[in-house]
């Protein structure tokens, strides 16, 4: 069997391939390219699960990057167990036909306790003294120390947060080459997130995006050369396209004005009490899951959302079925933003009362995805010095709070989640797959395309 590599270049669209991406453009010219109608919602965890199972969220269960656990009355945000994906994965199905098939899964999500033969995923350690120690999780377990010895520590601050940049994608690309050299997997799944950062910070039309395109093209080009030299067939793939936005929507503040949100005072700061609230919104880019604990106000909630500026539509039970997201993890209602808008998780009305984690990179405790974590508060004096002091304290083993994130959602200029109106903003599949002409393919069809290419 031939060996394959699938490189997931997050945020890549046809509109971004050009003069600034000579390696990707050259690869495109040699192969077929199909535009993909994105999974819904068009977010990381849903898109990847759809590609790897060929199913919609109502079957694989990944309704977004997060959902509300109604039994625990807690959010499940950016969880990592592969068992959360409720359908067989691509490599598992291929193994049924080819038992000797092996798979490396590098930084794709749901990468802990996976049935993949080799996996690497970001996973901090949390000692009892309250520190957060940057690290990775690997399978086999011993791979963790050997790859760090050869490549150095994974540059975690560059993977997400105000320092996010090319360093993390470059390390992941090196790890793919390292795994190939050590283990020669039949399939190598590689996740390169670099374009995700400034496309959200600056928006896709900002002139500085040219630099990001050149940086990721260099990394992808090196991988293409490496895999070609090892006679490995490559497919380029992306999850979604990022479009310009200029309007944040604060649904939880709307619910609060209606008296539907319950706020708990914690050490003088406000904490949203999910279980005690009649309704709340779990924000996820341009989509928000609305969990209604008090079903008697369901119609009122829907009416209020529909009247909120920036909201495009609200999916009820029937519409969720049409969108393939009628799963028990999904919200009772799902709000979709207009093309230029996106949803925040904000619920406080006075920034002085915002919870302490609001000003930190804290992807698990917030009531939604927070792209403002990509910024350093412009109001801070000497912000780089503050970050340097924080990193030094962490290195020395002290507890520290990196509260440098602003609370100004208007800073965000790019988002995703809804299905973009322009197909040029849809993700792409580039490689040796049989083309179906110029017609886009549904995200669920990517699975069969990849499988057919691998087995051909």
Automatic annotation (TrEMBL):
GO MF term set: hydrolase activity
Family matches, as Gene3D superfamilies: Alkaline Phosphatase, subunit A
A Pfam family this chain is assigned to: Phosphodiest
SUPFAM superfamilies registered for this protein in UniProt: Alkaline phosphatase-like
InterPro entries to which the protein is assigned, alphabetical: Alkaline_phosphatase_core_sf (IPR017850), Phosphodiest/P_Trfase (IPR002591)
Top-level taxonomic group: Bacteria
UniProt name for this protein: Alkaline phosphatase family protein
